[in-house]
Every structure is written in C-alpha cells, then in structure tokens.
DNA sequence: GTTTGACCAGGTTTCGTATTTGGTCATACG
DNA sequence: CGTATGACCAAATACGAAACCTGGTCAAAC
C-alpha cells in the first residue's frame, strides 16, 4: 500500500470504526481487535497509526471536536452575522448536542467515555482557550461585547453558562441559551455593520484553531 | 428518656455525627455503627429515628440545605435589597460553596456522596422549584426581572447558570456570577423602592419553603 | 415504654485463578 | 525492501468462592 493518500484514508476508516464502537459499547468494552476487525485490517496495523489505545480514542474525540468547529466555521462563512456571540453559541450548542460523543464529553458521561474523560481536557485545551479569549477581545474592540469586564473574566463566566446548559437533562432549547448569552455578555445594541467587519478575522481565528487540531490529528496518522 | 425536647436534641446529635463522618469518609464507607458510636448511643437507637441508612443521610443533606436557605432568609431580613436576584444569587452561591456537603451535591462529587446523589433530587425537589418560580414571578410583576420570557423559562436558564458556576474548579468569584445573573435576567434598571416593596413577600416565600423542609425533617425525627 | 447489642441474611471485599486484551515483533507478503 | 499481520507474552481484567462486614430486626435488659 503506497503511503500518502491511502494512509490517511485508512486512518479515517479506523477512526470511523472506533467512533462507532465507542458510541455503541463504550470505551471500557471496546477492544483494539474489535476496531481492527470492523475496519477490515489486522490488529497490528492500528499501532502503525497510534501508539496506544488511549491515543486512538482521544483522536476519535479530537476529530469530532474539529468537525464541530469546522461546521461552525462554515456557518460563519455562509452568514457573517453568525459571528455574533449569541448566534455562534446557539449554533455550537446545537452542534455539540447533535454529536453524542461530544455531548458525552461535556455531560461527564463516564458510561461511554470511562477513563478517557480526565485525559480529555489535558489533551484538548492547549491554546484553544486562548483563541476563544482572542475572539472575545475582538468582539469587545468592536462594541459587540460588554467591556466593563476583561474578556478573560467573561470567558470564565461564558464557559460556566455553556457547561451548565449542556449538562441539563433534557438540554434546554437552543433559543434559551442564545437569549441568555445575548443578555449576559452582549451590549444593548449589536451593530450589523460591526459584525460584518469582524467576521473575517473571527473566521480566521476559528479556522486556525481547527487547523491546529487537524495538524495534531494528522501527525498521529 | 422523656420524649419531646430531648428526642429532637438526640436526632440533631445523630445528624451531627453523620454529617461529620460523611464529610470525612464518604457515604460508602460510613456505617451506621460508626454514626451511633460517635453520637454516643446504640445502633438500634438510630433506627428509632430513621427507617434506614439512606434516609438518615438524606436527612443530613436536607438539614444542610435548610440551613443554607435559613441563612439566606436572615440576610434578606437584615437587608431587603438582598431580595434582588443578583444579590440573592451571590449570597446563596457563597453559602453553598461554604458548605462542603451541598457543594458535593452540586458538583456530583460521587466520592463523598456515592449512591445518594441520584436520590437527592427526587427527595429535595418537590415544590422547591415551584416556590422559586413564584419568587421569579413576583420579581417580574415589579419590574425586577426580564418579562420578555415566562418566569418558568428563565428559571430553567437560571438553574443552568448556577449549576455551571458551581461545578467550576476552582469556582469563579461570587462577584462574577452576580454580575452575570444581573445582566442575563434583570431589567436594565432595578428600583430600590420596588425591592423594598417585594421583600416581605419574597422573604415569606423562602421562609415557607424552608419551613416545609424543616417539617419533613422533624417528621422523621 | 425506651434502649440496646447479639444476631442473621444479604451484600461487599478479598484473593487466587482463568480469561481477555494491549502492545510487540518475527514472519509472510507484495 | 517496506508494509501488514496475527501468534505471542506480560499485564490487566473478569470471575468465583470464601471470608468478612454491615444494614436492619427484635428479644431481652433496663
């Protein structure tokens, strides 16, 4: 099998298999052999891509997370107004709820993720948070965010709110979190013009963030 | 031992002992005999007060929760402005953080509460939520709360926010949640006069709520 | 009438064994 | 010659039986 193209393709197939099984049986009960069989390859081949079981499943989660961000970026590209914090929140909230694995990550669903959960944040957070704060500062500079507190503090509050909504059962309507975020973090008026001005840079920020994670994914391939 | 006064006193001693051990060793590792010994009574005596182990520890939690509400009521009586949603939130947030057992309840600290956690909400929620919604409706009627959404929906969002802040580690500053709640759920201006007008009824609501729980506690005594 | 601790069934822990599985690598294969 | 594989092994996990503990009861003591 020639390297290059096909290699990445096979990696994706393995991740597909792992994701499927992870969701159906949970981390604890999914073996590497199950994954290999479902991917139609030998067990040893899996280790040509990832150095151990944990890394493989973390890659599954990372890919899922990257896909969610890429969806978000697409939405922002299609409509610059999505750059607005409240709108972006609604879309990302919906995205996460629609992806069972991400939802499990937020809801501390130990049943499916098991011992992966603790490792998740260590693996996923490096400069992700920084990028988000930058995005908030960008909004603030354009009167699209409250400025009576530093963006870094608002980020803390924002994450608390998002987390609170995500763990609710059943999760509240997307419109409700959008509304809450709008009131809690946005100024009274949000200028459409400013949003359009901000969009390119915001899109770039998230694109870059997603690209970094993609890189890390492919490095493992 | 004559009934009446002394009986309640003994119940409190048992709860003290149970609370102490619960905090130090966790639910799973705290036995009824431990509790009895620490309370200076025989094991059988515990069952004169509660019909089983689970009920005893749920009572510990219920008492803790009642105490927090009573603290809150005292704060409202001392200063009617505490009736304001943002202020009340700050105080209650601080109260909960200061009470490790309540904090464990919100943070899903399975290590100390173990199998009690699932039962907690079933036990604690009956008309508690209703009272809170009533309080919100009271605020709304006096222009102390957003009115563009029904109080019941705001209550859902509010609980998500509160929960999100409580599970944070480390928990954000009390000022931050107060600020967030103020923006998210209060109208632009909050009238001091209206607050004073609302205070007696609000205090009554919470007092009643606490009294109901106290009753249930004492019924078990 | 109240309190108690011995008592017992049901549950949990322990510990040794059988089984499974993560990860390696010599071999087969293209 | 480089890639893929599955037999292989140590380590982890699952299992089962026996020992131990504990929740809850109740006859006896007070």
UniProtKB/TrEMBL annotation, chains A, B:
The keyword Transport does not apply. The keyword DNA-binding applies. Signal peptide: none annotated. InterPro entries: Homeodomain-like_sf, HTH-type_TetR-like_transc_reg, HTH_TetR. Residues 8-68 form the HTH tetR-type domain. Keywords: DNA-binding, Transcription, Transcription regulation. Residues 31-50 bind DNA. This is Helix-turn-helix domain-containing protein. The lineage of its organism: Bacteria, Bacillati, Actinomycetota, Actinomycetes, Pseudonocardiales.
């Amino acid at each position: 099998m020639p390297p290059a193209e096909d290699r990445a393709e096979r990696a994706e197939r393995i991740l597909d298999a792992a994701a499927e099984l992870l969701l159906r049986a949970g981390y604890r009960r999914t073996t590497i052999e199950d994954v290999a069989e479902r991917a139609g390859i030998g067990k040893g081949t899996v280790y040509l891509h990832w150095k151990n079981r944990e890394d493989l499943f973390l890659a599954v989660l990372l890919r899922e997370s990257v896909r969610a961000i890429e969806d978000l970026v697409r939405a922002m590209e299609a409509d610059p107004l999505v750059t607005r914090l409240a709108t972006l929140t609604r879309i990302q909230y919906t995205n996460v709820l629609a992806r069972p694995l991400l939802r499990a990550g937020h809801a501390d669903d130990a049943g499916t993720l098991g011992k992966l959960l603790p490792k998740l944040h260590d693996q996923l957070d490096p400069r992700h948070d920084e990028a988000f704060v930058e995005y908030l500062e960008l909004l603030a500079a354009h009167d699209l965010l409250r400025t009576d507190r530093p963006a870094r503090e608002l980020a803390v509050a924002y994450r608390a709110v998002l987390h609170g909504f995500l763990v609710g059962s059943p999760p509240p309507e997307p419109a409700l979190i959008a509304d809450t975020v709008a009131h809690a973090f946005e100024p009274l008026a949000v200028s459409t013009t400013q949003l359009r001005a901000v969009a390119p840079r915001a899109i770039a920020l998230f694109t870059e963030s997603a690209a970094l994670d993609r890189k890390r994914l492919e490095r493992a391939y």
